[in-house]
Amino acid sequence: MKNIREWFPHAEVTDQANPPAGYVAIPLQAHQWLLLKEEELTEREKQLISWLGGEEEVAPNPWYQYLIDGKGEAPQVIKKMQLVYCHISHSTAEGTASWLEMMQTLLPNFRATLQLSGQDYVLILDQDQSLPVADILKDTVSAMEYDFNIRLSILVGQVWTESKDGKVSPVIRAEQAVFRAWIREGHQGVYRFSQLYLWGIEQADLDLTPIKTSLHQLIESQDQLQDIIVALWDNGAVVTKAAQQLYLHRNSLQYKIDKWEELTGLQLKNLTDLALCYHLVLQDVI
């Protein structure tokens, strides 16, 4: 890949196999192609590219197959998986490589990287120990941008577990879609899942049904959680007041709040996360 990029330094890397009019695409690796302008190619180069296109396809990335295509099994068993979606709007190859190395050091629960394009990366995390990923990245993103001369947009996705009736790919594709729509608006920085979800439900071209359905089912599976969400919403996320409304001991309520955070990463004392959960149960309580 490095040699090809040196030959065509102005070419773009994309995750779209079908090039637009006036371009040709060279396969680099699984789900990644190099876009070249036809008018800038010699006849010899066009013939070589045509030959490359006829070669056997690159072996697909098993994580891409599992998470995006919904095929096969996960390459590694991760009971509580969280994806961190990263878009790099300004970087060099050296800066990107150094940043990826830093991210793996910064997040000890890192398990794999999935590269979707030359600008888009997905970090796959094991959240069995509930690491506060969003807080860590918010504290360090400015320093990383400065040190590696890059510009980042990051979505810290939801914590998901494999459901009994299907795979995680539908919710992952929905997360990916809302993040792509978000970065098209030019946003930079680190964002929690709930922030983009609440924005995404207002976008007519986004279908967040897989996320809504999965989280709603999780809420229903937890004892008293729907009532807890409503009580916290009514009392501005003040645990003591919500406990009084529910006739629960404060410690018992706090235990249930902590259990939900361990399961999903959603913090019910965080008003944005709470708003997401309240939106999910609103249809059941009105």
TrEMBL record:
InterPro entries for the chain: CdaR-like_regulators, Homeodomain-like_sf, PucR_C-HTH_dom, PucR_C-HTH_sf
Residues spanning the signal sequence: none
Domain PucR C-terminal helix-turn-helix: 230-275
Protein name: Helix-turn-helix domain-containing protein
Annotated source species: Streptococcus parasanguinis
